[in-house]
Each structure stands twice: as structure tokens, then as C-alpha cells.
Predict the structure of ADP-ribose pyrophosphatase.
Amino acid sequence: MIARPDESYFPPVQSKMVLAPESEAKVIATEPLPDSEAVWTKLVKKIYLDPKGITRIWESAERRTRPKASGIDGVGIVAILEKPTGPEVVLQKQYRPPLDKIVIELPAGLIDEGETAEEAAVRELKEETGYVCEVIESSPVMFNDPGFTNTNLKMVHVSVDMSLPQNQNLEPELEENEFIEVFHVKLVDLWEECIRLEKEGYAIDARIANLAEGIEIAKKFRL
């Protein structure tokens, strides 16, 4: 990551989309989804033996989009901007119909066929925020809600060189059905910002909350 002595290297995010909790986006109907209409997800019945050898049944959800040659569904992206005033994390606001709320999230996305997690992270960050980046490291495979779904992801940490012209004049490549507002938060203030944003009516993605809580634990125990 490239630190610069002058704040002019860090222009404000030029996000055309402004997503407030009172956004006009809203769920207007909820109804059962026939399997024949499902494009992204499916419900499955798992028949398994428990530790005592008893046959049991578990209801589970799975994605239909996992690449055939991959054991991973998607990526979350930790993009840190090193500023003279302290490191800031790239976040975004996005309306999520399952919650019927604007959600505070890290940039993220699904892996395409033939992609590695790292390649997907570089592509998704460019598409969603406009930033170009280089991969630093990737996490182990993480499972989002293992009691409900086998959906998983890797967290990919990237560096963003703010001296690059591409990172001065951001040009996201959003799809027609994507509505994303990009913003930055100082890492040292992330926990307080999560609390403030929740009070304002936003939902907080668990990956953001876990990152913020980890920072607070590190502060408390001076790790």
C-alpha cells in the first residue's frame, strides 16, 4: 500500500448513488419460490447420520452459481487506503431485498467460471468501486451461516495505490441492477461507525462487524 504525505492524493469518493435508510427501494411482495423459477439458490434436504448413528434430516440452502471447478462461491474484499490521517477501509451501501434494508458492506462478489478468488476480488473491486488494486493475501475459506447454508467465501486483502491515475478518477462498472454507494471509514472509528449507522436504520453486514469487533479486541488487549 502506498502512503502519501499530501491529502490531495486521496480525493473524495465520487459516488453518484446516495443510499439513505429511507430509500425508495422496498419489497412489495413476498411469496414462495418454485424450484423451476429459482436462478440463484436452491433448497435441499440432507439425510445424514449423527454421531450416534441415528438417521436425521436437515434442511439447507445452496447457491446454484458456484463454478464447477471451484469449491468457493465468492469473495469479500478488504481494501485499505493508507492516508496521512490514518488507514481507512473501503465500504459500500447497497439495498438488499432479503432484509428490505440498505446494508453496510465490504465490496464483494461471486466467482466466475475459471477465476481464482484473487482474480475475482480484483475484478469485483474495479466493477463496484472503480479502484484498481493488487492482491496482498487471502484468508482460509470461510462459511457464512453453516447451520443454514454451505455458502462460503474467501476474504481477499488488497492494496490500492492512490498515486495511479485510475484511482484518482474512479469509474465503477456497475450492472443495470446494481445500486452502490461507496464511502470510506477510518479503521480506528469502524466500531463506532457501525453503531451510528445501525441507529440511523442501516443493516450491518457480519463481515464488517467482525472486522470492527476484531479491531476493538486488539485495542483492549493491546495485541
In short: The helical segments are 117-129, 190-199, 206-220. The chain has three helices and eleven strands. Residues 185 and 193 are 8 Å apart (CA to CA). The first helix runs from residue 117 to 129.
